[in-house]
Design a protein that fits this description.
The structure is a single chain. The protein has two helices and four strands. It has helices at about 15-25, 50-60; strands at about 1-10, 30-35, 40-45, 65-69. The longest helix has 12 residues, at about 15-25. The radius of gyration is 11 Å and the shape is globular. The two termini are about 20 Å apart.
């Protein structure tokens, strides 16, 4: 099992959380995504390792910026 913690730096509302969760869950092997609406902290769990570039690209496609912890 692979886990990754990072932040989405421009989370502003519940819709941002839902949109970000959806695009992250579309990545191959992702099992769970938890995003804290107040801090933008993300905990992602997947069946296999996911490249940081793939995570960042999927979020950038919906206008979200990220910072790797």
């Amino acid at each position: 099992m692979f886990t990754k913690d990072f932040h989405i730096t421009n989370v502003e509302c519940h819709s941002c959380i839902a949109l970000s969760t959806d695009v992250l869950k579309d990545l191959p092997g992702v099992k769970d995504v938890t995003i804290d609406e107040k801090t933008g902290a993300v905990h992602l769990t997947a069946e296999q390792e996911i490249a940081w570039n793939d995570i960042a690209k999927s979020l950038a496609a919906v206008g979200k910026t990220t910072s790797e912890d």
